Amino acid sequence: MNYQKILEDIAEEIKPHLKDGHVADYIPALAKVDPEQFAMSLTLFDGTQYHVGDTETLFSIQSISKVFTFTLALKFYNNSIYKRIGVEPSGNPFNSLVQLEYENGKPRNPFINAGAINMTDALVKHYKNAELTYKEVLNFIKEIADDNSISLNDVILKSEKEHGYRNIALANLMKSFNNLDNDVSEVVDIYFKHCSLEMNTKMLSRTMLYLANHGEDPISKKTHISQRQAKRINSVMLTCGHYDASGDFAFNVGLPGKSGVGGGIVAVVPKLMGISVWAPALNEQGNSLVGTMALELFTTKTGLSIF
Amino acid sequence: MNYQKILEDIAEEIKPHLKDGHVADYIPALAKVDPEQFAMSLTLFDGTQYHVGDTETLFSIQSISKVFTFTLALKFYNNSIYKRIGVEPSGNPFNSLVQLEYENGKPRNPFINAGAINMTDALVKHYKNAELTYKEVLNFIKEIADDNSISLNDVILKSEKEHGYRNIALANLMKSFNNLDNDVSEVVDIYFKHCSLEMNTKMLSRTMLYLANHGEDPISKKTHISQRQAKRINSVMLTCGHYDASGDFAFNVGLPGKSGVGGGIVAVVPKLMGISVWAPALNEQGNSLVGTMALELFTTKTGLSIF
Amino acid sequence: MNYQKILEDIAEEIKPHLKDGHVADYIPALAKVDPEQFAMSLTLFDGTQYHVGDTETLFSIQSISKVFTFTLALKFYNNSIYKRIGVEPSGNPFNSLVQLEYENGKPRNPFINAGAINMTDALVKHYKNAELTYKEVLNFIKEIADDNSISLNDVILKSEKEHGYRNIALANLMKSFNNLDNDVSEVVDIYFKHCSLEMNTKMLSRTMLYLANHGEDPISKKTHISQRQAKRINSVMLTCGHYDASGDFAFNVGLPGKSGVGGGIVAVVPKLMGISVWAPALNEQGNSLVGTMALELFTTKTGLSIF
Amino acid sequence: MNYQKILEDIAEEIKPHLKDGHVADYIPALAKVDPEQFAMSLTLFDGTQYHVGDTETLFSIQSISKVFTFTLALKFYNNSIYKRIGVEPSGNPFNSLVQLEYENGKPRNPFINAGAINMTDALVKHYKNAELTYKEVLNFIKEIADDNSISLNDVILKSEKEHGYRNIALANLMKSFNNLDNDVSEVVDIYFKHCSLEMNTKMLSRTMLYLANHGEDPISKKTHISQRQAKRINSVMLTCGHYDASGDFAFNVGLPGKSGVGGGIVAVVPKLMGISVWAPALNEQGNSLVGTMALELFTTKTGLSIF
């Protein structure tokens, strides 16, 4: 298949929609991003990459980091992680305290904020140190992105901390239900750090290879997680990866994926490739409007949907 | 692949678990069913069938009927059906009024009770007659099952009506939000009739062929719905087909499917076959315990998961 | 105290506010009422009455009827009535299904719709006949109003039935929790009939005497309920009588009272008198805007608040 | 009236019930209290006091402190305080986050935890310093108790901090809705300090005099708040003072009052006296079981209910 041509066609077709939607404005640092940017990258199992748009431009990965913390938590705890979190869709806004309270402090899945904070706590417990946890997660991301330059954006991090009261509330609520082991501030700090990492679609498409290849990196040949664990992450991405538009994403795109409010999305074509797309303006459900559109065009043009 | 051998192996492996779980007891007529029964059938595109267990025994299809009413509603209304229902997972017990109230009478998806009642209402509006609606839905099921003998169980129907107050409450709540067009009693009666139909796994596995084959029946060559509509139904089955265990089913089985509290499950292997399994005892989430297990064994043994 | 002068002063002071608020519009028959009407009546223990405004004009008593059905249910069942309902404020919109579901079909108090429907069911069980229940409640109201002319408004009743789906939903939900004994339609019909009765402030102020006098009618000397039962009704009126403005009413007016969306309010000055006020336009919480104001002026001018 | 005799009769009558109920166990320091203690005190406007039981024994005042912080917040902000809190009953467990989220971070009343934390925040804003706020509230309590010895219990305070995650969650949730002005930790620390104060029934009955006397201390003649503010506090105590048993307390006792999980209750007989009772074991709603019983006996014996 001529992937380069397909990407260029997509870039052309989405152009009229770059003015639609709204950039995330819950923190000032994100609100300032120029909304009319677009990038899309594919990485195949042999390392070949295809790019279109601003694929070198770094952006805030935000909730995409939840895939990586869930991966490591699953790696270290395996099935015992399900004492802490569920794997069912939430059917509610992504940061609601209501459901968390009704379900006694156990987040429904690792891709809502409470779930990702909880996974961070599990990692802090594993590494026995908050700062080390941040570093090890970053090292894992650098490894699977095959890029040592990845770092966090201090302005975003500061902004997250200044506007993160709801996340701190979620963490304290879990703590009150005895479902958080470490100091709340330390855990939430590390969670914010992971959200504040900056990457581009080139790097992100590369990170998805281990999920497309049963847990093993097809280039480095390193096994990060088991086949069963990779399948679990893919299925949770499919059913819970896009907040309250997960069902629509499953239908329209038909690939496991995860979006972030920075406008980035990662997706997995099982046994074939990793994908990442970026366009900062969001739709009503908080997912990249043009990014979702581009992925839908991609599976339509290539027939690479799982359905 | 030796499907017959696979089915027989599965029947052997699930045997020790036939005593687990509990038969649905919300209506007396279901509570009386002998829990230790099991049946599993596959139907390929050329009509070849493989069976194991009590595949001739009729059982109450219950919520499996929701797949058929959604199919016809989607066929007649296409995208305008989404004014009435959503396609997102519910994240709540299957018949909760809470979510319906918070979302102004619009059911989250067609596979929760409120959604299926609403689809029935859409069909009554289309056919302009409640009794005719029942007959046309039944005719559609007979056609895709390739079996004219299908009928409803009067004892089950009577039992449904005597214990269906929560469903009547759901219907009235939708009516109060102007999201139900016809007389509440008439609509709910038809809904109960569809739930009270009796079929066996032989018939049910046959019904799934149009969903496995892009909307077209591969044997009769009749196109029931468009490719896009079939894809939508499959994706909603994957994300919402098993109440609050949909995520787990997606992971463990990895096929679009729908369960009913009568213990039946239907599933779709895209481009290949329709499957049905039956075992009356349910797990905590209200899905057939052994049926779910059998499907998991099937995709493990055949590698036919979509992930 | 010169009650006549006080009433006339109040009528003068509220005049500029008769244009404020909005007439109930959930049923067409109520929406047509001329909003700029006002009436206020007091009835003392010796039968002396004081009136100002349109005190002969009949209006729909609506939820004021809940006081009378609770009275009779308490009379016939005494404390065993609390198996069916609570006596705590609801802290939610007056007809919410959410709370009813979370509390397993037991209404929080007899003055929310679910609670009054439940009290009607208790009365139908007691009288063993729905139509007889309607007549006996009407007879009780005629007796305590000392007026045989009271009847229901057919247009309002028809309108209630045509727009009462939420109430039917509430009744079915209670039925599904086994907290409703009789046929849902029959019970809700009788409930609607009581809401559709028409009375004026002259009659209504007279009805409150038994509650102001420990359960005994001070004029006829007939004991309707026990002292303890009267105290219970008064305390529930104080804490739950005005939907989600009950706390504000308790503070500003400081009298047990009950409002209806027809714009009427009844109130009790213990050991002294019954009061009724009417002004059709409602405030945001669904209580008569000018009526609440008039009662507040009354307790300010007379010092007759319980605080 | 022979108050001493009445108190002694009450002490005799409640004796068989001292073994009922359960001491609060959410913090270890409270769980250790001997449950079979009892004390009751009355303070009249001329300073005369009547006592029975362990009236010199200090106990943790817990939520009774909410009356004092609401008093000062109302004094400094008057009606503008209602931008921050409501005055309606909550109809939910006393520390639920659900309602706070649905109502956009505005607590329903000053006597639920979120409301009291918010009042503390208002005071920190007024005094411009957290530690000063603690001291000024303590000074106010010392003044109205006419006792300079009042201080906090360090063990209780430490325990509160170690188990206060839900309160910290509530505060962060309010902060996320911009309904908290100061640093969350500082505000919650001060809130915990007020809850950790220790007093006895002798002191507490004395503190209620300003509320019984229209805002003015009848002994010192000092006006603490306006008549209207005192009326507001009394009405909120009546409708919201006892968690989800407020309606029952209003009925059975018929006096404005406030309970704490330390087993203490304060109550107000308007124009006559302040009351305090203490018995550590709680009923299901979290109010002193024997304390509630003693107050009910008191109003029955004296006829001093407001109904």
Descriptive overview:
The structure is a homotetramer of 307-residue chains. Chain A is of the alpha+beta class and 307 residues long. Chain A has a single domain, classed as DD-peptidase/beta-lactamase superfamily (Beta-lactamase, 3-Layer(aba) Sandwich), CATH 3.40.710. Helices cover 47% and strands 12% of the residues of chain A. Chain A contains 14 helices and ten strands. The first copy, chain A, has helices at residues 3-14, 28-31, 65-77, 97-102, 113-127, 130-145, 154-162, 165-176, 184-195, 201-207, 209-212, 227-240, 246-252, 289-302; strands spanning 22-23, 39-44, 49-53, 59-60, 151-152, 197-199, 257-259, 264-269, 273-278, 281-282. Chain A has a five-stranded antiparallel sheet with strand order 3-2-9-8-7, sandwiched between helices. In chain A, strands 4-6-5 form a three-stranded antiparallel sheet. In chain A, a hairpin with a 3-residue loop joins strand 8 (264-269) and strand 9. In chain A, helix 3 (65-77) packs antiparallel against helix 12 (227-240) and helix 8 (165-176) packs across helix 9. The longest helix of chain A is centred in the middle third of the chain and has 16 residues, at 130-145. Chain A is globular. The first copy, chain A, starts with a helix and ends in a 5-residue tail after the last helix. Chains in contact: A-B, A-D, B-C, C-D.
